[in-house]
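This section describes the prediction task in plain terms. A model, or a person checking by hand, is given the sequence of a single protein chain and must write out its three-dimensional structure as a string of tokens. No templates, partner chains or ligands are provided. The sample shown here is typical of the held-out split.
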Amino acid sequence: MKMAASDAETLADVDTLAAVIAHSQIVVTAPRVRLPAGFDEVDIAVLDWIVAEGHRVGRNFAPM
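The expected answer:
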């Protein structure tokens, strides 16, 4: 299968972008946790579960 010219150009652009990013001086720091002191891994796991359930259910629930 032959690649279309626009596909080849897109791949070249992506390769160029990847090379530029690899050589950039941009530094990404670790995200800060913005939870009150005293929260432990279990609390965070419960909050993550609540968020996941909210995404799963979406707007298909009856408000209380």
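For orientation: Residues 5-57 form one domain.
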